[in-house]
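Tokenised fold entry reproduced for everyone:
>
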Amino acid sequence: MKGVFGQLREQIQGREGRGWAGSVDDLLFDGERVRRSVSLGDNRVVVTSHRLLAFTPGRTGENYRQVDVPNVTDVRAGNEGESVLVFQAARMYLYGGVLLAVGLFVDFGAFVPTDVFGDAGGATGKLGLGGLFGLMQQFLALIAQLDAFARLIGALLVLFGVFITAVYMLTRDRVLVVSLAGDNPNITVPADDESDVDDAVTALESVLFDPGAGGATEPTAPDTGFKSDDPL
């Protein structure tokens, strides 16, 4: 199923442009034949005698990618979500962990003199500075409690990171991942139904890595017009 953010984005932005009206046969080279075709909702993966073709008209970016079959190293089921959520969750864990460490291992009250103005009440009162020194005394007491505040804020940040992680896990899309050799980015094909991905992986593994399992169609030799029983 599509993630909540993906559905909301489609409802707001819509799908611009028109879909390709051609067929797979229009993209085949001379002598190239289709060996297996797998549909994943609106998306489609086609394996030919030469290449793997991936059609993803519902995604942002390219609607079509191709790769030579020898460059396909693996086909598996995976998940894909909003990467910004992972980044935000990592930030919350980092900041929260730092604050928790500070709050647990640093005792601000041990080196902040909270009673430095405690015995100067009479003298400061005569000088008219009682209010100022009282304010400074409260400020020092607040600094002495920074470790407690750090623990509280750190715990809240970690909990917020857990919440973001849960949102990411619940809004991920189930995808078919085609791993490629070299530095080429993997091909990901979303699926509307989770069971479709597992069936697609089985079908594609069979035709890509075990041609003897069936489903392979060898290209036929082109007709040259020569006949063996030609009297000439």
User: Anything to note?
Assistant: The radius of gyration is 33 Å. The CA atoms of residues 114 and 205 lie 71 Å apart. Confidence is low (pLDDT under 50) at residues 215-232. The first strand starts at residue 34 and ends at 40.
